[in-house]
């Protein structure tokens, strides 16, 4: 008789489980109350944890390497490390927005943004410089929908 791996079935069942059931599983698998995040987050973390417990987690050398790479990226800056890198457009990306009949071109840099040869750390500060009024820079450049999906 062939043994069937139950893990794929457990993972598939997460999609249809009520949120209350996901929170119950979270408490069982992580032994702490679930965080107040959305359902998609709970599903993905539960799926990882189920596989981690069944098949084993990352090797210690892989964890150390990831930590080292993270340090290189954020220099150990705790504030920077909390910013998700996938929310930021890739350095070199050009953001183009027409404002009052004039095309505004912004370049994403390693440290922020550049507009008309001047550096800006914040996309909202940059939008304020262009418009003269307070704007959410992500909304101004049409990036808000991308950020909320991440």
Protein described:
This is DUF2924 domain-containing protein. Pfam families: DUF2924 (PF11149). It comes from Paracoccus liaowanqingii. InterPro entries: DUF2924 (IPR021322). By secondary structure, the chain is α+β, with helices and mostly antiparallel strands. Among the domains are: 50 residues; 49 residues, no CATH class. The chain contains 8 helices and 4 strands; from the N terminus they run H-H-H-H-H-E-E-E-E-H-H-H. Strands 1-2-3-4 form a 4-stranded antiparallel sheet, with helices on one face. Helix 1 packs antiparallel against helix 3 and helix 2 runs parallel beside helix 3. The C terminus is likely disordered.
Entry keywords:
four-stranded antiparallel β-sheet; 4 strands; alpha+beta; about 150 residues
Topology diagram in text:
Elements: H1 7-16, H2 19-30, H3 39-55, H4 60-74, H5 78-81, E1 94-99, E2 102-108, E3 113-115, E4 118-120, H6 123-131, H7 137-140, H8 144-149
Helix content: 40-55%
Widest sheet: strand order? 1-2-3-4
| Count of β-strands | 4
Q: How is the biggest beta sheet arranged?
A: 4 strands, antiparallel
The residue-averaged pLDDT reads 85
Give the termini distance in whole angstroms.
44 Å
Taken in chain order, the helices and strands follow as HHHHHEEEEHHH
- Uncertain spans, ≥5 residues at pLDDT below 50? 146-150
Shape category: elongated
Strand content: 5-15%
Task: Supply the helix-strand structural class.
Answer: alpha+beta
Q: What Rg is obtained from the alpha carbons, in whole angstroms?
A: 21 Å
Number of helices: 8
Organism: Paracoccus liaowanqingii
InterPro entries: DUF2924
Pfam family, one: DUF2924
Protein name: DUF2924 domain-containing protein
